[in-house]
Design goal:
Layout lengths: L2 H20 L4 E6 L2 E6 L4 E7 L4 E6 L2 E8 L2 E4 L6 H13 L10
Antiparallel strand pairs: 1-2, 2-3, 3-4, 4-5, 5-6
Length: about 110
């Protein structure tokens, strides 16, 4: 994947996350220079950013760090095989008790 293709796909990820979070009053978020910080009512944070050298989307949460690569049309963790948006749903619920729905966002 070229750098331009990666950036286009990563931009789409951030846009999808932003649209879903706009409907969620329990999560504050800020996108700054390609780093998306989510602050939950519990005071904990989740960070989502693009890692250009590896062409990956990285998520940092209390439960660990997750790296997602583009595979067969989805962002998938090579380590766990989990999908990016399913992982975000899980870590947001674990850290903040908040449900976020990415299913309607494409």
């Amino acid at each position: 994947m070229t750098e331009a293709e990666f950036n286009e796909r990563a931009d789409a990820v951030f846009a999808r996350i932003e649209r879903a979070l706009e409907a969620c009053e329990d999560v504050e978020w800020e996108l700054n220079q390609g780093i998306l910080e989510l602050e939950l009512d519990s005071g904990s944070k989740i960070v989502v950013n693009r890692h250009l050298p590896n062409r990956e989307i990285w998520v940092a949460a209390k439960s660990g760090g997750f790296h997602f690569g583009w595979k067969e049309g989805r962002w998938v963790s090579a380590r766990e095989g989990a999908e990016l948006f399913a992982t975000l749903v899980r870590v947001i619920r674990e850290q903040g008790g908040v449900g976020v729905d990415f299913a309607g966002e494409r």
